[in-house]
Structures are given as C-alpha cells and as structure tokens.
Amino acid sequence: MDGVLCSTDEYHYQSWKKMADAYHIEFTRKDNYRLRGLTRERSLEALLGGRQYPPETLAAMLAAKNEYYLESIEKLSQKDLLPGVLELLAELDRWGIKIGVASSSRHVTAILDKLEIRQFIQAACDGSQIQMPKPDPEPYLQVARKIGVQPGGCLVIEDSEAGVKAGVSAGMCVLGLGDRKQLSNAFEIVNDLAGVKIKNLRAIYKRWLGDRMI
C-alpha cells in the first residue's frame, strides 16, 4: 500500500520524527527510508538501534507514533494516489483481475476508504492479522488465499526491500517500483506505475513464468 498505491512516507517520517524528538533520539529521512515495509514494532526497533528502554516506555513510544500518524492521515484523499494507480486499478477491475493488498500498516481499511479505491480491492491483510511480517512471505500468502489464487498465479508490486523479499519467498512474480539497488531481487523494476497497463503486467508475468519453466 504505502509507496505503491499512495505515498505516506512523509506522514510516517513526521510521526516518527516527532516521537523521536520527544525522547531526544536522532532520526533522519534516510533512517525513515530503512523502515519501509516494516511493522511499527520492527520500525521502532530499527529506529532505536540497540538502545534499551523499559517495556512501558516502548509502548508509550509506539502509541505516540500511532497517534501522530492517525492525525496526519486525516488529510489523505484520492489526490494522494501515486501516478498511474487509479487508471491501472480501474483497468484491472474491468478485466476481472483480483486485487489484494498486503501491508504492515494496521490502518489499511481506513486508508483505502480515504483514497476512495476500496471498491477495487477484493482482499487485504494488515499488520494486525499476521504473525510474521515482511520479509516473511506470510502477508502475501494470506492475501493469495483470501482471493483464491495460487502463489504462482500472483504478481506482486512492491517498493520496499522487505516487501520484494516477501513476494519472492512466497513464490510470486515481483515487480519492483523505484531503486534498482534496493530492489535487486525483483524480477523486473520500473520507476513508477505511470503508463503501466494490464498488457505490461501480463508480459512481465509471462516472462517470469517462462524463466521458471527453464
């Protein structure tokens, strides 16, 4: 969801930054990039970098970050969809292609509603429904079960290293969005979804399927 359908990176950054500042912890945009695809708990662990705090303090940090984030996403609307997303979702819907969302966020439903695209999504898996978050394949395998498609019949679109690893481990074709160094495990990589059509996704999937059969 984040980084593929919409960009909430800035909202996450500002929320983590506000929390970190309150505890006098240095936190930069580069640090924020490393948190892509991670759950809130794993993000906090990465942010702290080995610093030790009592359990009650860690819980307070997580609660504060969540509160700041919820306040910020009140501003979300369809204008926050990334380039090409609405057009691609509408085309996939017309062709009867099942669409699922696998995210570590616990606010998937609320965000899909604010983006006004929930009608295109047949199934979603959020951070509250999984035992093993990305890079474990569980989120993608769970969504595949929900939409009734075998893993090998799925194409994943991901912008995070953890997400790409999860999709590959799930046995799915993975299209990466963005940084080629970070997403080198993806089968193919594009800059964004602007101009990407169903014919492009089918061609990528067909090449991936062909490689698997060699």
Q: What amount of the residues lies in strands?
A: 5-15%
Q: Unreliable segments (pLDDT under 50, ≥5 consecutive)? A: none
Average pLDDT value?
93
Number of helices: 9
SSE pattern = HHHHHEHEHEHEEH
Rounded radius of gyration (Å): 17 Å
The CATH architecture of the largest domain can be given as 3-Layer(aba) Sandwich
Number of domains: 2
| Strands ordered across the widest β-sheet | 3-4-5
What sort of overall outline do the alpha carbons produce when their principal axes are compared? globular
Query: Percent helix among the residues?
Result: 40-55%
CATH names the topology of the largest domain as Rossmann fold
Helix/strand class: mainly alpha
Strand elements, count? 5
Q: Span from first to last CA?
A: 32 Å
Largest sheet: 3 strands, parallel
Give the full name of the CATH homologous superfamily of the largest domain. HAD superfamily/HAD-like
By CATH reckoning, the class of the largest domain would read Alpha Beta
What's a concise summary of this model?
Helix content is 46%, strand content 8%. With 214 residues, the protein is mostly helical. 35% of the residues are buried.
Describe this structure in words.
α8 (161-169) links the parallel β3 and β4 (173-177). The protein has helices at residues 9-22, 29-33, 40-48, 55-72, 85-94, 108-115, 138-147, 161-169, 198-213; strands at 100-102, 123-125, 155-158, 173-177, 188-190. α1 (9-22) packs across α4. With 214 residues, it is mostly helical. Helix content is 46%, strand content 8%. The protein folds into two domains: 9-75, Putative phosphatase, domain 2 (DNA polymerase, domain 1), CATH 1.10.150.240; 78-213, HAD superfamily/HAD-like (Rossmann fold). The longest helix has 18 residues, at 55-72. The mean pLDDT is 93. It has a three-stranded parallel beta sheet with strand order 3-4-5, with helices on both faces. Strands 1-2 form a two-stranded parallel ribbon.
